[in-house]
Amino acid sequence: MLYESGSGDVFYADCRPGFRARYIQTITPWALTEYDEEGEAVVHGYREGTDCEVLFELQNLTEVGPAGFRAQELHVGLCGLAYRARIRKGLVKTHWTPLEKSAPSRAAHENDWSLAGRVIAFKPLKNPLSGSDLYWIHLDLERMRLEVLVNQRSLRGDTLATGATLEAEVWLQGHVLDEQALLSRYEGVDLAWATATFWSGMKRKN
């Protein structure tokens, strides 16, 4: 992506593929930082009710708009794009740490993280544009659950299986769901609403 400032200076930034996570997490408190030169934004916050810190690149700043960032809590889908990953069958201590702390020489971005967690589920995918074979992996990190995308060629170690441990270094990205998006994800009857409310929406105005 290229950006030209008012003075004529040209900036560029990497555009990474986005992936919309399946599962939603609540982040509060939170803070949003925008970088005009690069056209990017990051969100820094904590998973609701925990001391689990997250900092991720925001995918959909323009989609949500200012109104979506007035709430005290954000509903987000988080996914880590793995630089490298390894499967281990032995006992490995679960962790979730900023990469700049665990391996400063390999940390290129503030939203790079190092993790180790138990595999809850996984599924092979194919990138329709590049043709690359990927794995979608859902992990239990104890203080939170996280979805990770791994290129099959980059996955090392033992055979991927439910219950195994995945160690990885990831670039964390996510998208925020506004109220309309949250409502559209709901399936089934919302018992918080009275039955009469549903029928009132079907009245003809003539």
Quick overview of this protein structure:
The protein has 206 residues and is mainly β. It is built from four helices and twelve strands.
Describe the fold and architecture:
The chain is mainly beta and 206 residues long. The protein contains 4 helices and 12 strands; from the N terminus they run βββββαββαβββββαα. It has helices at 61-64, 99-102, 179-185, 195-200, and strands at 2-4, 10-12, 25-35, 40-47, 53-58, 74-88, 95-98, 112-126, 133-140, 145-151, 155-157, 165-177. The strands form 2 sheets. Strands 3, 4, 5, 6, 7, 8, 9, 10, 11 and 12 form a 10-stranded mixed beta sheet that branches. It has a two-stranded antiparallel sheet with strand order 1-2. It starts with a strand and ends in a 6-residue tail after the last helix. The mean pLDDT is 84.
Task: Please describe the topology of this protein.
Elements: E1 2-4, E2 10-12, E3 25-35, E4 40-47, E5 53-58, H1 61-64, E6 74-88, E7 95-98, H2 99-102, E8 112-126, E9 133-140, E10 145-151, E11 155-157, E12 165-177, H3 179-185, H4 195-200
Parallel strand pairs: 5-12, 6-10, 6-11
Antiparallel strand pairs: 1-2, 3-4, 3-6, 4-5, 6-12, 7-8, 8-9, 8-12, 9-10
